[in-house]
Amino acid sequence: MASHEAARRAIKAGYENVDVMSDGIAGWKAADDPTVPAPAGASD
Questions:
Q1: 18: which residues sit within 8 A by CB, 6+ positions away?
Q2: Which of 13, 29, 42, 43 is 20 to 30 A (C-alpha) from 35?
Q3: DSSP string for 1-44
Q4: Contact 20/7 with Cβ under 8 angstroms?
Q5: How crowded is residue 37: how many other Cβ atoms within 10 Å of its Cβ?
Q6: Is pLDDT above 60 for 44?
Q7: Count helices and strands in the chain by DSSP H and E runs
Q8: Phi/psi class of residue 21: alpha, beta or left (left: φ > 0; alpha: ψ in -120 to 50)?
Q9: Region 4-18 average pLDDT
């Protein structure tokens, strides 16, 4: 899965507290976890 590979690369690059949202953003929102809108002018 691409998200798992991205997490491995982030850890290798020195990032800490890296996690994978197994259910994606839809699962995150369904669990009523907080989200923040993208800044004006930000691309998707």
A1: 7, 10, 11
A2: 13
A3: -HHHHHHHHHHHTT--S----TTHHHHHHHTT----PPPTT---
A4: yes
A5: 6
A6: no
A7: 2, 0
A8: beta
A9: 95
| 3-state SS, residue 14 | coil
Nearest CA to 4 among 26, 20, 24?
20
Q: Give ∠ CA 6-7-12 in degrees, rounded to 5.
A: 95
- Which tokens in the block code for residue 19? 């996690």
Return d(Cα 17, Cα 34) in angstroms, integer: 18
- To the nearest 10°, report the CA torsion of 12, 29, 2, 38: -70
What's the whole-model pTM score? 0.55
Res 14: pLDDT: 97
